[in-house]
From TrEMBL:
It comes from Cupriavidus malaysiensis. Residues 14-86 form the HTH cro/C1-type domain. InterPro entries: Cro/C1-type_HTH, Lambda_DNA-bd_dom_sf, MLTR_LBD. PANTHER family: BLL4672 PROTEIN, BLL4672 PROTEIN-RELATED. Gene3D superfamilies: 3.30.450.180, lambda repressor-like DNA-binding domains. It comes from the Bacteria. This is XRE family transcriptional regulator.
Amino acid sequence: MPGTLSREAALGGFLRAHRERLAPAEVGLPPGRRRRTPGLRREEVAQLAGLSATWVTWLEQGRPVSLSAGALASLAAALRLSRAERAYLFELAGRRDPQLAGEEAAPPAVLASVQSIVGPAYVLDRQWNALAWNEAAADLFVGWLDGACGADGAGTERNLLRAMFLSAPLQALVEDWPHRAARLVAEFRAHSIRYAGEAPTRALVEGLLRDSAAFRADWLSQDVEERQGGRRGFRHPRRGLLHFEQLTLLPAAAPGLMLVMLLPA
């Protein structure tokens, strides 16, 4: 946020601006005769959101008011916020949007994008299940995305973490596997913190803690790392030693997903 503007002040300014730009007719209210300010009144927003008018006033004034995620969702609905505006509201308030608790729909364009990439490329969801991959990725990732793992998910583990710790062919493929596996766990811890309370994330971690002693040791180390690019080495059973530069992108339309590309080193 610019300058020394506090998070509370930024939140108050955001709410006030969106209240003032919303016409009464847009929410089914009569225009009224004596409106001294543009847009809705604070009392009207409070009524639409099912909140106290005092709380709405304090929020706009930048006071340190703590609202639940449900109350913020009601405010977002009352103010007719767009998807981006709603996400911004929750970020300012430091709350997790309850709308994101379920599985995030993967935009078809993101899934199809891997087919236009020459090198190995794949898309991961928030639990790091592979949703889509191209032929180059299937050829490279023996024991994960190769022919043993069909498009329906049958066969080899489609989840990257489970394959990394439970697939012997993938472990043999990855150069310096112990270091890369530990780094992957640290990256997943950082990436998944927003989804740690979701059942699929809990089930994934609990299952690996049960099934893999190596994962358990890496997870209990509490290491946290950003998912960064860099050189990746593979000892391919047919093509020998291969090196790539990894690039990870977060699609704006679905920030919970990751598009991973391996470029020639």
